[in-house]
Design a protein that fits this description.
mainly alpha; three-stranded mixed beta sheet; 18 helices; 3 strands; 65% helix; Activating signal cointegrator 1 complex subunit 2-like isoform X1; ARM-type_fold; Interferon-rel_develop_reg_N
Length: 444
């Protein structure tokens, strides 16, 4: 059975710094003095200082402009020195914007907080960001129904938990907030507005982004079954972005071996009474039926013809994704992707890596390449070392010199890759799919 290797070729070039330093004396184009570089750095810091000061202004439009300029500065360069000086001030003012600002201001402030977390990397500051931000984010996401505001808050929550979450309980709490924003547990007297496609897409994407950092065997079968059932309903939605987000989430769930957990627990509980055995067998058959339904949905979406007014690019993205999900469900092969970062190639070989990469790339937009080339946290998570860093003596990093910023995500990712490789070998030996389970094997 041939292995389909889909290669995503994306050329991402770093943004050129077009800023220049004027001088009264004439300078040759190939000369750039140290004092000139210092002056440029001073000007950048000065502009950022002014932007932070503007966050104290009463006029909302002034604060919005300041937040937009901060986002631009953080995207164009890693602001480590500035963050060391103004970390607490910037976080505090952004949280004030989330608590009291307009929808646009909340949208911008939540993005700045996410960028702040990615800049400081794992550690005490990132933990403080998560601790201080989670309640304001939760409260702001429940007030009003502006889709872009809520989506930005959920994406921010995903980023700050990814960087600052230390305990699995913290990650689970953030995932629960995301889940309930689109799939609330309603009481008899509770009425809630249906979330928009934009909010559903953001919530499911952020949820699956955090799921990549979790040990799926910690979570209960009931939670897994509820999650899979809901995501299956999203595959039938009209909005293509919702279907794609649900497909990616299901791929991560299946990669974590949740169905195998269902089967193991169903068989294990058979040691009890006859009624318990029948109940567990019934649950097992329900899971198998749900898997069969999803398989049919995925197969249909992988060959969808496309409706009127359907954008060709979006349709192709959907087909490609669900072809990969289908092959994964049937044969156990993850899509292998290759992305150009400047002149270097970044490769992924698991669904978890791909979902992490796509989420961070979406969040950072034009700033992704800069972070991917220079942010130690990114380099550690993806095990990526740009050649340029090795060629420049001043940036050469040996194992002994490398900053001790080991993300648990990279450890999980590598371990999961090893497990998946073993499972692929077993899959070939058994001559059936990676997640296929024979109902006949169930011991009644």
């Amino acid at each position: 059975m041939g292995k389909n290797q889909r290669k995503n070729k994306m050329m991402l070039d770093s943004d050129d710094d077009s800023s220049s330093v004027s001088s009264s004396s004439t300078m040759q184009s190939d000369q750039f003095s140290v004092s000139g570089a210092d002056e440029l750095e001073f000007k950048k810091d000065s502009l950022l200082d002014e932007a932070v000061d503007a966050l104290y202004e009463k006029r909302g439009s002034t604060r919005e402009k300041a937040l937009a300029s901060i986002i631009e500065a953080f995207n164009s360069d890693l602001q480590h020195q500035f963050v060391e000086k103004k970390f607490a001030t910037l976080l505090h003012q952004c949280l004030n914007s989330i608590k009291k600002g307009s929808s646009k201001e909340i949208y911008l402030a939540s993005h700045v907080i996410g960028l702040l977390a990615l800049t400081v990397g794992p550690g005490d500051n990132a933990q403080e960001i998560l601790k201080e931000s989670i309640m304001p984010i939760l409260q702001a996401s429940k007030s009003g129904s502006e889709s872009s505001k809520i989506a930005s808050l959920l994406e921010c929550l995903g980023i700050i938990t990814f960087v600052g979450g230390i305990d699995p309980e913290e990650t689970e709490k953030s995932m629960q907030i995301m889940w309930q924003s689109v799939h609330p547990k309603l009481g008899s007297n509770v009425v809630t507005a249906k979330p928009s496609a934009v909010v559903i897409t953001a919530a499911v994407s952020a949820w699956s982004f955090l799921l990549t950092t979790m040990d799926g065997w910690r979570l209960s079968p009931k939670l897994w079954q509820e999650s899979i059932a809901y995501l299956s309903t999203l595959l039938d939605k009209d909005d293509r972005s919702v279907r794609i987000a649900a497909g990616e989430a299901l791929a991560v769930i299946f990669e974590m071996g949740s169905l195998e957990k269902f089967v193991a627990e169903a068989k294990g509980s058979n040691n009890g009474s006859i009624s318990e055995g029948n109940k567990s067998k019934e649950g097992f058959l329900q899971i198998q039926g749900l898997r069969g339904k999803i398989l049919n949905q995925v197969r249909d979406l992988s060959v969808e013809a496309g409706g009127k007014g359907s954008a060709k690019k979006d349709l192709n993205n959907q087909r490609n994704l669900f072809k990969d999900v289908l092959e994964f469900l049937e044969d156990g092969y993850c899509p292998e992707t290759s992305m150009k970062i400047g002149g270097d190639s970044l490769q992924t070989s698991t669904w978890s890596q791909l979902i992490q990469l796509n989420f961070l790339r979406h969040f950072l937009g034009g700033g992704f390449t800069k972070h991917m080339q220079e942010n130690e946290f990114f380099l550690d998570v993806f095990g990526f070392t740009p050649k340029r860093r090795n060629l420049l003596g001043s940036e050469r990093i040996s194992n002994g010199q490398k900053r001790m910023l080991k993300s648990p995500n990279s450890v999980i990712s590598k371990a999961r890759t090893q497990i998946l490789n073993k499972q692929r070998m077993l899959s070939k030996d058994r001559n059936f799919g990676h997640f296929a389970v024979n109902v006949g094997e169930y011991d009644a």
